[in-house]
Protein: DUF4112 domain-containing protein
Organism: Thermocoleostomius sinensis A174
Amino acid sequence: MPPSSPRPSAVPADSRVVRFQRLRRLSQILDNAIGIPGTRIRFGLDPIIGLIPGGGDTVGMIFSSAIVLEAARMGASKTLLGQMAFNILLETVAGIVPVVGDIFDVTWKSNVRNIVLLEKYLEIERSTRPQNRWFAVLLLIGLFLVFAACLTISVLVLRWLLQMLGTIAQ
């Protein structure tokens, strides 16, 4: 039996590239999925979800946090994770303001910003960088606590407004 020549195998796709492409698709769905005809304005599901009173911004923050967590799994630095968390934090805090927060969400696009940051990082990344999963988890917990505070303030303001309307109607 003659020795068989080695078969060329398909080069396995770099898992980081595949994961990054998945994150990029998620950010596009969240921030740029829908275009307004005749304009260059695009928005995604994140601002639409944010319109749901009380829980919409929470859901948007969870989706956005998934990008940060995956970036940590890919070995992103603490500095980068902090920048990404700041983008989400700014969008979440602004989101508690009715109408203005939704407009800010359409223009700020924290998920797209975070993907650009991650892409730049991956281009210069050294393989010796430590993974910062726990740092990312702590950042996400911090984001959640800030969001909980913002939600509490929103509920209190809404309750106060309803009481004022009730007083005026009487």
The chain has a mean pLDDT of 81. Residues 15-169 form one domain.
